[in-house]
Write a structure and sequence with these properties.
Elements (H helix, E strand, L loop, with lengths): L1 H21 L6 E9 L4 H20 L5 E9 L4 H14 L4 E3 L4 H14 L3 E3 L15 E3 L8 H10 L6 E5 L2 H5 L1 H10 L8 E3 L5 H12 L5 E5 L2 H14 L7 E4 L1 H4 L7 H6 L4 E5 L5 H17 L10 H20 L6 E2 L15 E2 L2 H9 L2 E4 L2 E4 L9 E8 L2 E9 L3 E3 L43 E5 L9 E4 L6 E4 L1 H12 L6 E5 L11 H6 L8 E7 L9 E2 L8 E9 L14 H24 L9 H13 L9 H30 L3 E3 L4 H7 L3 E4 L4 H8 L6 E4 L2 H10 L8 E5 H10 L4 E8 L4 E5 L5 H13 L2 H11 L23 H50 L21 H7 L5 H12 L7
Parallel strand pairs: 1-2, 1-3, 3-4, 4-5, 6-7, 6-8, 8-9, 9-10, 18-21, 18-22, 26-27, 26-28
Antiparallel strand pairs: 10-15, 11-12, 13-14, 15-16, 16-17, 19-20, 22-30, 23-30, 24-25, 24-28, 24-29
Helix pairs in contact: 1-2, 2-12, 2-13, 3-4, 5-7, 8-9, 13-14, 15-24, 15-25, 17-18, 17-19, 17-26, 19-26
């Protein structure tokens, strides 16, 4: 009955298309085109209606064209051999210039080989398998998208929601298998693991599908990627709903092969897909598309009167645009002299070698590839032998329809709106830049994508006891035999697992015995993940370069580095001369030099100012020079410059004495501890013995540094370290303990007063967890550990297991001498030196100026006196009977003024007294 309906449908379509063709210009050159589709499939029915409308629209818009397409439609009956037979018939008997179709990728491979042999282009708008490569099939043109174009969109969506595992469910056909290698590769690039692949034969029964779904339910992964035909997908989702896999916690992502037909599927099928995400090819809206959609719906009902109403899909638009591209190419080529050259062959006509070759095939193919226009489906460009990747729409199936939640483009990735810049796009596992989704089970919470089934396999976590039980302590339950682990390393791991976006069931598995902390080296312990004994090993495991060859490490959760623990001693000897300790010898010397310099400057300033208080014998002047810097005596100092120098000096003296007093008090009251060894090279030179923790890689490090085996001693517990350090290297102990920083802090928390840490002397990466190489949990656990160690959680864990060991003052570097140095007061020395030096320079300039002024005035008075004497001699007239008298104006201030007064009775006593007073400086102010 179905075959009869298909035959009737084919006759009706041929008649309608023939009428459409005859309605065009009758004198046009006919170009024969073959069409091979599965006329019983939904895609085939949609495409045939679109093709018939495309012919009408094209030649209605191009009535002056000299060519017209004559379509020869064939039904493949959904059979690969049948499709090939129809292609041979079209090439042999109808000499078609091109074949549109077939519908399936498996059919397209063989028919494309026929096209290569006959130089006839094969154009398919439905064959999406990546195995159809244009490089190996030169006459194959894909008027649709390659399936691999959507894998980046799928991976970005999975990554945006933070899922780390996904299971592809695909049909066992060329179409289903073709996408898988590309999908897996892109998922791995996004750190998404594929633990299982579910392959369903296209002929699978409902029971077989149900059995496979039950198998998936026993696994932990809850994220599924469905890639199959719409018929098989319909059965899959109906059964998934029946078995309870469309409930809360499940994630379904459907590829565009099904999503592009979502509007044409039966409502019951769409309802069974509720909550699923779909990748949908985005078609820009336009007035032409709206008008065509109305016409298409009417024509589809005419072409398929017995079928339920359907909606136009992207396959119908691509078939429409394909007809326009072929018709335009035919007009450009002309094909008026198209011929098929048959090879000379004695074989039967069914022999493929007897196929003729089209003379215009290469040129026709070239014109088809140059087709570029804006069609109903958007930009239609076949220059790359297939449509280029444009935009995908991500939809959420709800009820009997769907709604848009976002877009994906190769340039901007995921975004809520289409024309959003890349800089504004958000990629976050917690807040994806998409509209809210209603997930299966009508849940609005983002599924974790990972559940714990009853029979699920747990993560095997390797643990071993440590010499420092604060990090990890392992015990065996005597009743159940289960392994229990506690400690800082365990708490950090458990807190990190809680933060993971999916559930990770785990169990602790003991390495060695719980009592023996030295059973096997840490290298052997880490190597177990490479042997698949454990999935992950935790504890106080140092991240080392040699271990990265067989394991991957998480980020460290402790401080890094290797340092020394050495005894401390009081660095200050509280003896008779401790009062000299607050200042260094350089500081003492500088202070004394500036003390003397300041006294000399002040004495010189007063001396230049003719201060009688500073004159006298040299011993007296030395006493005054010492007296000035100690006491500011205003009655003794007369010059303003002297007082400025003293003010600056007293400020300097105040600061230095205050600092001296504070430092001396600290030395007398606070214990000044210093390490007995400051550098590991000191231990090498002196031949001291050092210790290390037994089983640690530090032993090899010490040997590399040059320590002989006789100079290295292993110890097991912190008490052993304390006893060995307290005895010292000369008494059978050790001079220093070389250990990792986290262990040293634990040790100093208990023995803080007697020891200190020196270093780190060697770099190390800290403690981390080791996983097998390629384990997909690595990235997620590392991110979760960063969350733990970057907040208050790690502080509370450290307080719980280590107490307040960071309060120990001996942890970290210890400063050297606390004496005050010359450099500490460099600014004060510069200030007081500048004040003293500038003052003495100003005083010298003033003194030189006054001295020169006095000399000039004396010379002028002497010249005047000589002139007066000559006049008196020539006139021979004594003045008032007093020859050679000196006037009051001729008296000069200076050292000889008193002699002038004594030898010249003509000068009045008052004038001499005034001159003497001025000379002594009593009535004047001196700068």
């Amino acid at each position: 009955m179905e075959i009869a309906n298909r035959v009737i449908l084919l006759l009706l379509l041929s008649a309608s298309i023939g009428v459409a063709q005859n309605s065009s210009r009758g004198g046009a050159q006919e170009v024969h085109v073959g069409v091979i589709l599965d006329l019983g499939s939904l895609v085939g029915k949609i495409a045939i209606t679109s093709i018939s409308l495309a012919l009408e629209d094209f030649y209605a818009a191009h009535q002056n064209y000299s060519t017209k397409l004559v379509l020869h439609i064939r039904d493949s009956m959904s059979d690969d051999v049948g499709a090939a037979a129809q292609a041979l018939d079209l090439l042999e008997n109808y000499k078609v210039e091109t074949i549109i179709g077939p519908e399936k990728s498996s059919q397209a491979i063989f028919i494309s080989d026929l096209g290569t042999k006959s130089h006839v282009p094969i154009i398919s708008f439905t064959a999406t398998s990546p195995t159809l490569s244009p490089s190996s099939l030169p006459y194959f043109v894909r008027a649709t998208l390659n399936d691999s174009a959507q894998v980046s969109c799928i991976a970005s969506t999975i990554n945006a929601y933070g899922w780390r595992k996904a299971v592809p469910i695909y049909e066992d056909t060329e179409y289903g298998r073709g996408i898988i290698p590309y999908l897996v590769d892109v998922l791995q690039e996004h750190n998404v693991h594929v633990p299982y692949r579910s392959v369903i034969p296209p002929s699978a029964t409902s029971d077989q599908i149900t059995k496979e779904l039950y198998k998936l339910m026993t696994m932990q992964t809850r994220v599924y990627i469905v890639h199959m035909s719409s018929v098989l997908a319909s059965t899959l989702f109906i059964k998934a709903k029946e078995v309870g896999m469309m409930e809360k916690g499940y994630v379904w992502i459907i590829t565009d092969g099904v999503t592009n037909l979502i509007d044409s599927l039966h409502p019951s099928v769409v309802e069974s897909m509720n909550g699923a995400l779909g990748i949908h090819f985005y078609v820009p809206k336009s007035t032409e598309l709206n008008n065509f959609n109305t016409r298409w719906n009417m024509r589809y009902q005419i072409d398929n009167p017995t079928d339920p109403p359907s909606k136009l899909s992207i396959f119908g638009l691509w078939s429409y645009d394909t007809i326009w591209a072929v018709a335009q190419a035919a007009e450009k080529v002309g094909l008026s002299n198209a011929t098929f050259r048959k090879p000379i062959s004695k074989q039967k006509s069914t022999d493929l070698g007897a196929l003729g070759t089209s003379s215009n095939g290469p040129e026709f193919l070239k014109e088809i590839l140059q087709s570029k226009f804006i069609g109903l489906s958007g930009r239609f460009d076949l220059s790359d032998r297939q449509l280029t990747v444009s935009t995908f729409q991500i939809i959420n199936i709800i009820g009997k329809g769907w709604r848009e939640i976002g877009f994906w483009t190769a340039q901007n990735g995921l975004s809520r709106r289409l024309n959003k810049s890349k800089s504004a796009t958000i990629y976050s596992s917690l807040l994806p830049d998409l509209n809210p989704v209603i997930w299966p089970g009508e849940s609005i919470d983002i599924p974790r994508g990972f559940e714990v089934p009853a029979s699920g396999k747990k993560l095997r976590v390797g643990v071993r006891s440590s010499g420092y039980q604060q990090f990890i302590k392992v015990e065996k339950d005597e009743i159940t035999g289960a392994t229990k682990a506690t400690g800082l390393s365990v708490d950090v791991f458990e807190e990190a697992v809680k933060i993971l976006p999916y559930a990770v069931p785990y169990e602790y598995v003991l390495f060695g015995s719980p009592e023996d902390t030295s059973s096997g080296s840490y290298d052997d312990f880490v190597y177990q993940v490479n042997l698949k004994v454990y999935d992950i090993v935790i504890g106080d495991i140092t991240i080392r370069y040699n271990r990265t060859f067989y394991a991957d490490f998480t980020v460290p959760y402790t401080e890094s580095g290797i340092a020394m623990v050495v005894p401390v001693r009081d660095s200050v000897n509280k003896n008779t001369w401790i009062f000299l300790k607050p200042l260094t010898p350089g500081m003492w010397l500088g202070s004394i030099v500036f003390f003397i310099y300041t006294g000399v400057v002040v004495l010189s300033l007063e001396f230049l100012g003719n201060n009688k208080n500073v004159r006298g014998p040299i011993p007296r002047q030395l006493g005054i020079m010492i007296f000035f810097p100690l006491f500011e005596e205003k009655e003794i100092m007369e010059r303003f410059l002297s007082r400025i120098v003293m003010i600056v000096w007293l400020c300097f003296l105040l600061v230095v004495t205050s600092s001296y007093t504070a430092n001396l008090t600290s030395m007398l009251t606070v214990q000044q501890l210093q390490p007995t060894v400051n550098d590991i090279q000191e231990l090498l030179k002196s031949g001291e013995i050092v210790g290390y923790h037994r089983g640690s890689y530090v032993k090899g490090l010490l040997e590399e540094l040059g320590f002989g085996r006789s100079k290295i001693k292993p110890y097991d517990t912190p008490d052993d370290f304390h006893n060995a350090l307290s005895r010292g290297s000369g008494n059978g102990g050790i001079a220093a303990l070389v250990h990792e920083v986290p262990y040293i802090k634990l040790f100093l928390a208990k023995h803080c007063e007697a020891y200190t840490m020196v270093g780190p002397i060697y770099k190390a990466a800290g403690f981390g967890y080791a996983l097998a190489k390629g384990n997909p949990l690595l990235g997620d656990i590392s991110k979760a550990m960063l969350n733990v160690t970057g907040g208050d959680t790690i502080i509370q864990i450290e307080k719980k297991w280590m107490g307040y060991q960071n309060d120990c003052q001996n942890v970290g570097p210890i400063t050297g001498s606390s004496s005050l140095t010359f450099a500490n007061f460099r600014g004060l020395f510069i200030l007081t030196g500048a004040a003293s030096t500038s003052s003495i320079l100003i005083a010298l300039i003033i003194y030189a100026y006054k001295k020169q002024h006095r000399s000039t005035k004396v010379m002028q008075n002497d010249n005047k006196q000589v002139g007066n004497n000559r006049t008196d001699g020539e006139n021979n007239e004594p003045q008032d009977g007093n020859q050679g008298a000196v006037t009051e104006e001729s008296v000069q201030f200076g050292a000889g003024s008193e002699q002038v007064c004594d030898s010249n009775p003509h000068i009045s006593p008052a004038t001499c007294n005034d001159s003497a007073d001025i000379h002594r400086g009593e009535p004047r102010t001196v700068l």
